[in-house]
Design a protein that fits this description.
Among the domains are: 3-97, Death Domain, Fas (Orthogonal Bundle); 120-149. The protein is built from twelve helices and no strands. It is an all-alpha fold. It starts with a helix and ends with a helix. Mean pLDDT is 77; it is low at 106-113. Helices cover 75% and strands 0% of the residues. α1 packs antiparallel against α4. The longest helix has 23 residues, at 119-141. The chain crosses the membrane at residues 120-138. It is found in: Endoplasmic reticulum membrane; Mitochondrion membrane. This is Caspase recruitment domain-containing protein 19. Keywords: Disulfide bond, Endoplasmic reticulum, Membrane, Mitochondrion, Transmembrane, Transmembrane helix. One of its GO terms (biological process) is regulation of apoptotic process.
Length: 184
């Protein structure tokens, strides 16, 4: 949504009574006059700061003027509003629409937390179980090959280098099982 459309949507909210006081409007006008690139010329800034006109009229004229100038000018108005009246900026109707989550959208922060809440120990435990099942499946499906000393020797070398992946006790049990299988 463009800033001009957002400003048109927020116009009634901003111009309603007691939302913005004269000091805040003057600060916004001065900021728009002083910011680079200059949004308001000196003459326009004096016109929108004229104390003879009512605040409602000046603010309405300012918002209409910015909408005619384009999206960049409206964006700078929102920036000035955020700097000078942050609470009002956060309460804008267009901001509430932007903050409203889409019910079909996945909240990635929540999803990331749900996936990572168990930590690395849980991951290592699952990995160890998967590696153990893969080894067991390999051993069961290659019964004839296990009887050969060459395969047992390879398995022994692999298990010998794996005290980090699986515990020392599990490794010893697997080695005893392989030796028993090779004897039979």
């Amino acid at each position: 949504q463009s800033y001009c459309h957002r400003l048109q949507h927020d116009m009634y909210f901003l111009t309603s009574t007691s939302r913005l006081n004269e000091q805040v409007v003057d600060k916004i006008v001065l900021q728009l006059n002083r910011v680079y690139p200059q949004i308001l010329t000196n003459e326009e800034a004096e016109k929108f700061r004229n104390p003879k006109a009512s605040l409602h009229t000046r603010l309405s004229d300012l918002l209409k003027h910015l909408q005619k100038k384009g999206d960049r000018h409206c964006q700078e108005f929102y920036r000035a509003l955020q700097i000078n009246a942050e609470q009002l900026f956060n309460d804008l109707p267009s901001r509430k629409i932007l903050k409203t989550p889409d019910p079909t959208e996945i909240d990635t922060d929540k999803e990331q937390y749900m996936l990572n809440e168990r930590g690395p120990v849980f991951f290592l435990a699952c990995f160890s179980v998967a590696a153990g099942l893969a080894l067991f499946w390999y051993c069961c499906n290659s019964g004839e090959l296990l009887r050969e000393t060459q395969v047992v020797g390879r398995a022994r070398r692999i298990l010998g280098f794996s005290p980090i992946i699986i515990g020392r006790h599990v490794r010893n049990i697997c080695l005893l099982y392989l030796e028993d299988m090779s004897r039979n």
